[in-house]
Amino acid sequence: MELLPFTHSAFLIVMSCLVALVAGFTGLSLTRDLSAKPMFQKKAAIALSSVALGGGIWAMHFVAMLGLQLPILFYYDAAITLVSALSAILLVGAALILLHFAERTPKIIMLAGAIVGVGVLVMHYIGMAGLELCRAIYTPLGVIFSSIVAIGLCMLAFWIAYGHRTNRNIVLGTFCFATAVCSVHFLAMAGTAFVAEPDLAEFGPSMSNETLALGVIFFSFVIFGACLWVSVTYLVPPVDQPADAPKPEPDPAPTPPQTLAPVAPQVPCERDGAKVFVRAGDVLFLRADGHYSQVYTESERLFCVWPITEATRRLLPAGFLQTHRSYLVNPGRVARFERSKDKGRCVFDAPDLPPAPVSRTKLRATQDALANQDGATRA
C-alpha cells in the first residue's frame, strides 16, 4: 500500500480558521439575552445559531480541505458531504436546546459542550468518508488525541460563554470554540495518511473541488453577513437608554426618601380551568411538583405555574420559609412545629391538610424563625 504525499495551502488554512472564528462569534451572539424574548423568537434564534455554529464547523473543515493538495485527482461524495453538514447542525442544535430550555446547571453546560465536541468529531470523520478516488487512513493515537481535544475545548468554550452571559465571555468563548474546531481538524489530519482508490463510490453523485468550493464560498459569505448583522447589536445602546436622549436635570434639592409599604405578592393558580390569584397570606405552604408547584390553602389545593425556584424568589422576601428544597411554608399559618431526631415538620390548623416536612439542613433556621411567630410552640 503506497501512501500519497500531501500538503496544505497556507492561505486556505488561515481562511478556515477565520471562518471558525466568525461562525463561533455569530452563533454565540445570536443566543444572547434570549430569556427576555418571546418563545417564537427564542426558537428562531436557537435555530439560526445552530446553523451558524454547525454550518461553521462544516465550512471550516471544507475550506481547509480545499487546500489539501494530493498528487492525484480526487472528488467528494455530495450526499455524504451533505450528511456531514446536517450532523453538525443537529448536534449543535441539541446542545443549544439543553442550554436554553432546561435548567442551566454546571452539568448541563458541560454536557452541552461535550455534545458540540462530539458534533465536531462526527462532522470531520463523516466529511472525510466522502472522499473519492482516495481514502484516508487514521492512526488510533490521532483519533483519540483529537477526540479528547475536541470535547475538552468545546466544554471549556461553552463553560466560558454560558457561565456568565457577558459580552466579554462571549468573545472568550468564541476563541475557545474556534480553537476547538481548528485543533480537531488539523490534529486529526496530522495523524492521517492517504492512499489511492481505483474506483468511485456509488453512494451519491460525485462532486469536484470546484463545485465544493462554490458551496463553501456561498455558505461562508452567509456566515460573514450574519456576523456583521449580530455585530451591530453590540454597537446599538439599549432601547431604554437612547444615545440622543436628554440627560435628566438634577433635582433642585434632595427630598427625604419615601418608604413604601411592601406589597404582598399574588400567587397565580388555576381552579377549574380558570386562572385565579391567591394572596400570599392565604397560602399555608407550597410544594414543588416537577416544573410547577402545588399551593395549599385552608380549604383547597391549587395548581401553580411557578417552579419552586420562581416561588422561592418571590415568596422568601414576603416572609415565607424554605423548610425543604421542595417546600415553602408561611410561618404565620403554622400551628405547631414538631421535631423528631434530626428532622421536623410544620403542622397546620386545617382538616385533612398534610404537614410540611423540615429537612435536617433547614431544621435550625426553621425552628428559630418559628419561635418568633405567635401561636407556634417549640417542640
Structural category is alpha+beta
- What can be said about the biggest beta sheet? 7 strands, antiparallel
User: Whole-number radius of gyration?
Assistant: 29 Å
Count up the helices: 9
Which series of helices and strands comes N to C?
A: EEHHEEHHEEHHEEHEEEEEHEEEEEH
**Roughly how much helix do the residues carry, as a percent range?**
40-55%
Strand content: 15-25%
Overall strand count = 18
What is the typical, i.e. mean, pLDDT? Answer: 82
Broad shape: elongated
The span between the termini is 84 Å
Spatial ordering of strands, largest sheet = 10-9-13-12-11-15-14
Which segments are poorly predicted (pLDDT under 50) over 5 or more consecutive residues? Answer: none
Region (Disordered): 243-265
Transmembrane segments: 6-30, 51-72, 78-101, 108-131, 137-162, 169-196, 216-237
Keywords: Membrane, Transmembrane, Transmembrane helix
Domain HTH LytTR-type: 267-372
